[in-house]
Amino acid sequence: MSRRTRRKAAAEPEIHWHEYPLIQAREYPAYCRWAKSYHDPGFHRWTCMMRWDVLGDDLTTVIATVPYWLSIGRKEKPHASKRSKYLREWVRANGAPPTRGDRLSPRVFVRRIARVAVGDTDPEKSPVPYSVVKKIVRWETGSPGQSISKSHNQDRQGISQARTEQYRE
């Protein structure tokens, strides 16, 4: 390689991109290993992203890691409306509707196994198609009705369990 070619190669930075795998579209068992909510400036909305390890039928082999996105509003802060997919999936994963004071944390999805439908992205929207979770078919693990995101100030409000039961009747 000549001196000029080496200088030119050194001056051009390498361009990296995050390659997502492309696997056969069908239902798979999958393990949610990570979930996070963030504001997506490209779509001007709040989003919850989950990373799913798609498992083989033996439940030990990881075939691929694929993403799943759920929108959580376009307001200043994340907001799960009553008709949102996020709220529907949160209730299914939690096993019960949120109680007053729940914060609907994406942690309810993490370290859980579910049956998921995997499909490909739209080739018209992405020049390089890749696999994504299209739908969570059913939750396989986790304790139903166990909310993990209670408000920190519930005990300070002075509402006793007996009074709460009285209001529910």
Number of strands: 5
Our Rg estimate from Cα atoms comes to 21 Å
Integer average pLDDT: 82
How many alpha or pi helices? 3
So what's the overall shape?
globular
Q: Order of strands side by side in the largest beta sheet?
A: 3-2-1-4-5
Offer a quick outline of the entry:
By secondary structure, the protein is an alpha+beta fold. Helices cover 16% and strands 32% of the residues.
Key structural traits:
OB fold (Dihydrolipoamide Acetyltransferase, E2P); globular; disordered C terminus; five-stranded antiparallel beta sheet; 169 residues; 16% helix; single chain
Can you give a write-up of this model?
There is one protein chain. This protein is an alpha+beta fold and 169 residues long. The chain has one domain: OB fold (Dihydrolipoamide Acetyltransferase, E2P) (Beta Barrel). Helix content is 16%, strand content 32%. The chain contains 3 helices and 5 strands, in the order αβββαββα. A hairpin with a 4-residue loop joins strand 1 and strand 2. The longest helix has 10 residues. The radius of gyration is 21 Å and the shape is globular.
